[in-house]
Amino acid sequence: MAGAVPGARVSRPRFPCFDGLRAIAVFAAIATHVGYVTGASAEASYRNYTANLEIGPAIFFMISAFLLYYSYVSDSYDDREPLRATNFWWRRLLRVVPAYWVALTGLIVLFNLHVSGLHDVVIYYGFLQIYDTQRFLGGIPQAWTLCVEISFYAVLPAYAWLLRRCTAGRRLESRLRIELLGAAALVATCYVYRAAVYAIDGRHAVGRIATHWLPGYLDLFAIGMALAAIRAYVGRRGTNSLVEWVGRMSWMWWLLAAVCVWLVAAHLGLPRLPQADNTPIGWGADRQQILQSLSAMFLCLPAVFGAQERGGVRAFLRWRPVVFLGTVSYGVYLWHEGWLDKWMSWTGRASLGDLVTGHGHYRVSTYPLILVLTIAGAVVCATLSYYLVERPILRLKDRVPRPLAARRGAVV
């Protein structure tokens, strides 16, 4: 079979289920964080699950890799001029930075988030906290995942350029094989890197944060990019019986995702509280990440393959309330920790620190109450962020500043 006709235009498919996946990711993160702060992860009967619902970052990383790389690999398959790296970075900057800066400033001013001195300002506003052993969870604690995303944005154009060079002039099937080999190489790099960190400094300050740098999560991004390469290939060659079967079995993929979450929560013996001295390293940490990677992949499969208007799974992901929550999920992600701390204070609930020191008692109603209140506060702020900051700013995505537009940097 011949490859794609150079310069030919293939219509870009819509992926309407991804907002629903974002909603699942952000609320899994909130459920975990509320469990830590309220003490539910230490005291409640369902503590193993609230302590190990850390699938949110895996889903976010995989979605980001799929959606961003899909455009690049599609252009490569079609021998079409790709988006310039500077244009790509400009769009990513508009999508991520303004809302984050507004949230960080709002949390400092309105929620008494602790930031002191020029050094803190540079670190937190510059997305550098994951490289600082003293500030890794400072500022907006959950923003460590955003720092990983930023580093992925930085290197993606170069990776796309490299794969484009490696696949140029080849048949479409050969291009897909090379793309999948590239993804496999990234997965291998991830686990070699993690093994090196564990061996050199796994229990010390630098080692504990180094596994949270981009190389430590390359497997998640690689799976997303591999799915993008396969989906773009299917868009040009058409479906076959295997692809159609994958698209039909949406409930099976979600059931397998649930099994992976259950295995992490109930059978790995992981610590229920995120303390430095009991954080798993080596195989204990790797098997957790492998299961979370598989769970995220299974959740994403119905959104990538199959008729997007069919099945109960996709109906849920496309349900308007779920789509709305996914649309504003970035703001929910940014604001929820601030609201969590405030609701704990305003309702007089014993914090985890109080419970550990014996100065408070865990109340069964604490977790569901604080969870609902945290979600409510975060959704309000997220809605304002989306309509007043994020959406207006994104109207500038095609207005690249002249100094950037004039540069001929790496292309993707």
How would you summarize the topology of this molecule?
Blueprint lengths: L17 H21 L1 H4 L3 H4 L5 H22 L7 H26 L6 H9 L18 H24 L4 H30 L3 H6 L7 H20 L3 H8 L1 H18 L15 H22 L7 H6 L2 H8 L1 H18 L5 H5 L9 H29 L7 H4 L7
Helix pairs in contact: 1-4, 1-15, 1-16, 1-18, 4-7, 4-10, 4-13, 5-7, 5-16, 5-18, 8-10, 10-13, 12-13, 16-18
Keywords:
mainly alpha, disordered C terminus, 412 residues, 0% strand
Fold and architecture overview:
The protein is an all-alpha fold and 412 residues long. Helix content is 69%, strand content 0%. The longest helix is centred in the middle third of the chain and has 30 residues, at 172-201. The radius of gyration is 22 Å and the shape is globular. The two termini are 26 Å apart. The model is unreliable at 1-9 and 407-412 (pLDDT under 50).
- Largest sheet, strands/sense/barrel: none
Helix content: 55-70%
Structural class by helix and strand composition: mainly alpha
Instruction: Return Rg in Å.
Output: 22 Å
Low-confidence runs of at least 5 consecutive residues: 1-9, 407-412
Question: Can you count the helices?
Answer: 19
Mean of residue pLDDT? 90
Number of strands: 0
**Judging from the principal axes of the Cα atoms, what is the shape?**
globular
CA-CA gap between termini: 26 Å
Order of helical and strand elements: HHHHHHHHHHHHHHHHHHH
How big a fraction of the residues is strand?
under 5%
Quick summary:
The protein contains 19 helices and no strands.
